[in-house]
Design goal:
Layout (H helix, E strand, L loop, with lengths): L1 E8 L4 E8 L4 E5 L5 E6 L2 E6 L5 E4 L12 E2 L5 E8 L2 E8 L6 E2 L6 E6 L5 E8 L2 E8 L6 E2 L7 E6 L5 E6 L6 E6 L6 E2 L6 E7 L5 E7 L10 E9 L6 E8 L15 E8 L3
Antiparallel strand pairs: 1-2, 1-23, 3-4, 4-5, 5-6, 7-8, 8-9, 9-10, 11-12, 12-13, 13-14, 15-16, 16-17, 17-18, 19-20, 20-21, 21-22
Pfam families: PD40 (PF07676)
Family: Belongs to the TolB family.
């Protein structure tokens, strides 16, 4: 599977290939200074300068089975990772420059997805009692707070820039659709209801729009190697518009991917080996 790390400029609708690789790379984050992307591949994390694209390994210490659920804190000095510990995904944090990770979640599996704008809490997906639900937890660890229950399979929680809402996807009504709720779990609202199978909503830094990944009708889960669409919808709900279509899915935009000024986002498209 060939990977193409790309950026998309919202104002002009232009795709730009930052790096093409014969290796499987996933889930780009954008650093708060706008200079660097972070991706994962083969259990490791990499920095990638947008101006001078070359993969640089981030030292994650004992965490050598990192998956595609990772992201930087609002100020960019620390990164949350999801590492397979004793067979289950577990959330850790470590300095962005690299270092030994500090464990956050005691109950697992847990998959990181969002960092609160004030930097104090993490939003994540946890499988508890056989169900995948949305939780938050202090960055330093401690008691996890369950926000969803009896919502089917939930995934992809991401905070709005004002810290008031958490967006996520849930298949409560059948196929995966987008929802939002207040950060304490109240005020639950369904935000999409269409034929697409919608995953991984990401509010933009301006608070005006939400980017998400749309699969064809009937898709089960969030597989790789599918014809997908990246769509943009108003943050308060309403009609979405298509931005680009390509081969992608799992690994494309699993985690927050907006540039800090909200004028572009990063994603990964895929193609069969040559």
């Amino acid at each position: 599977m060939r990977s193409f790390i790309e950026t998309f400029e919202i104002d002009i609708g232009r795709r730009n290939i930052v790096l093409a690789s014969a290796d499987l790379l996933e889930a780009p984050n954008w650093s708060p200074d706008g200079q660097t992307l972070v991706v994962n591949g083969d259990g490791h994390l990499f920095r990638l300068s947008v101006a001078n694209p070359k993969l640089e390994t981030i030292d994650t210490g004992c965490a050598d089975e990192c998956n595609n659920d990772h992201g930087l804190c609002p100020k960019g000095y620390r990164i949350a990772i999801s590492h397979r510990l004793n067979g289950d995904s577990t959330i850790f944090t470590l300095p962005f420059e690299g270092g030994e990770p500090v464990q956050v979640t005691a109950r697992n599996p847990s998959y990181w997805h969002g960092w609160s704008p004030d930097g104090r809490r993490l939003a994540f997906v946890g499988r508890r009692d056989g169900a995948f639900d949305i939780f938050t937890i202090p960055v330093a660890g401690g008691a996890e707070k369950r926000l969803t229950r009896d919502m089917g399979h939930c995934d992809g929680p991401d905070y709005t820039p004002d810290g008031a809402w958490i967006w996520f996807n849930s298949d409560k009504t059948g196929s995966a659709q987008l929802w939002r709720m207040r950060v304490d779990g109240s005020g639950l609202q369904q935000m999409t209801d269409d034929a697409f199978v919608n995953w991984f909503p990401h509010p933009d830094p301006t608070g005006k729009h939400v980017l998400y990944l749309a699969y064809p009708p009937g898709t089960t889960g969030h597989p790789r190697d599918r014809d997908v669409v990246l769509r943009l919808m108003p943050a308060e709900g309403g009609e979405a518009r298509d931005l680009c279509r390509f081969n992608g899915g799992q690994g494309t935009i699993n985690v927050p991917c907006w540039a800090p000024d909200g004028r572009a986002f990063a994603f990964v498209s895929y193609a069969a080996p040559e």
